[in-house]
Amino acid sequence: MEDGPGPNVSAPLLAAAAAAATDLIHIQMVFREPPTVRRSVFAFLLLVYALTLAGNSLLCLAIARDRRLHKPMHLLVAALALTDLVENTNALPRTMYDLVGDSPRISAPWCIAKMFAYHVSFRVHGYILAAMAADRYLAVCRPLAYRGAASNAVALRALAFAVALAAAQSLGNVAIAVNLDLCKPRSLITSTCDFLALRVLSCNHVALGQAYTYAMSVAGIALPLGAIAAFYALVLHECRKPALRRGRNKALRTCGTHLVVAAIYFGAILATFASGAGGGTPSSAASPELSVSLQSLQFVLPPVLNPIVYGLRTAEVKESLVRFLRSRVRPAKPLAPLQEDTRIG
């Protein structure tokens, strides 16, 4: 009679072997033990997801309903809110399910589909922030040319180009990932599906895939960040000139709001790379719990904080949100019928 598994064979390895036999990838979820920690983390993620849905949905509704907010900058804010919703929905519901499920596993095709959505939303987010910086540069430094150069049509074309570019770049990641031979035990400790995570399960030579992934990371992070830095360097240079006109002061206030949002986004990315996620797996220098937590900041912090920042720091958006909420709680009184004006002259 054959001996069963020895006492030193861990549960994750057994789960990985079972996953390999069924074309599934076992996700070694952290924070599952003890059960009290699992429930606390689940409640926290559920709260974050609910706040993200509520905040970004309200922001989009306020901008869509108020014609005074149908301006290029506010259209970009609404697009950023939609991107946050996609990014957060792609990550958190599945994470919460795996956290409380009996056996957290995901099929390779579904993992690659999530990877595509992650890469598209991640890159679109950075490109929108760069477009916002360009809008603020024109508003402050080229106010006379702003109305012609920055229109709603231009903003919509820029958004369409950003989505198309991000999708084209992400399809390259998908093409590389689908050709991986996942021959090793299918077990990962990660908060996202990504080529850099899947490569540890592959027997293929992945040098070309790694080079492409890092190049696209530069395109999705360094280029938008460089564009934002360049535009705001020009804005700061403009601020050194004699007193700005009143209209420019209003544009400058929105610059501060945008800089806060950009700092949150790129700060979360920096934390992700600091955790070792730039290599696709948690850093060996840190505990898995700390590494996965830092990796998750990228799709947790910006989506939940962005609507709060724009709602509190942008007067027009704040007023529109207040009017919208009041109309839901206390319906507006019907307008009195117009009376004919008989005055002459």
From TrEMBL:
Keywords: Membrane, Transducer, Transmembrane, Transmembrane helix. GO terms for cellular component: membrane. It comes from the Eukaryota. It is found in: Membrane. One of its GO terms (molecular function) is olfactory receptor activity. It is a multi-pass membrane protein. Pfam families: 7tm_4. Signal peptide: none annotated. The chain crosses the membrane at residues 41-64, 154-178, 211-235, 256-277. Residues 55-310 form the G-protein coupled receptors family 1 profile domain. This is Olfactory receptor 2M3-like. InterPro entries: GPCR1_Superfamily_Member, GPCR_Rhodpsn, GPCR_Rhodpsn_7TM, Olfact_rcpt. It comes from Petromyzon marinus. The keyword Transmembrane applies.
